[in-house]
HSP20 family protein (Marivirga sericea), 146 residues
Amino acid sequence: MTLIKYNPSLPNTENRSFSSLLDKFFNDSFNGVGKEMQHFAPQVDIAESKKSFEIAVAAPGMKKSDFNIDMKDGSITISGERKFEEKKEEKNFHSVETQYGSFSRTFHLPENIEEDNIEASYQDGILTIVIPKDEKKELKRTIQIK
């Protein structure tokens, strides 16, 4: 039997071997639940329409107050922390696959945005940031060939 280190980023996680499940169980037990929960990167979807850009951050289980959104030098930084709260019900966790910890994601924005009209909302575990475009600023330029 070959032990395969558990890797959640592998595309085919449906066909995990029994040994990989054992490996994950024992690694989590010996490493302690808190060690692997210091950092995570929530999944982000970015879309563009004619009037705006939209950033959607999947962060279920968090509150609005857990997020920070900062604009600086043409970049937007979304940061926050999802805390692991052990309840005092004397539960023994056998597996914890949910990611916990702090995160920070920075995205560089184009020049044709209206920084003063950016809006953010949080509903059903999705932080949505709408960044309107400034129609007066055109990014496309035609360069004449000499």
About this structure: The mean pLDDT is 79.
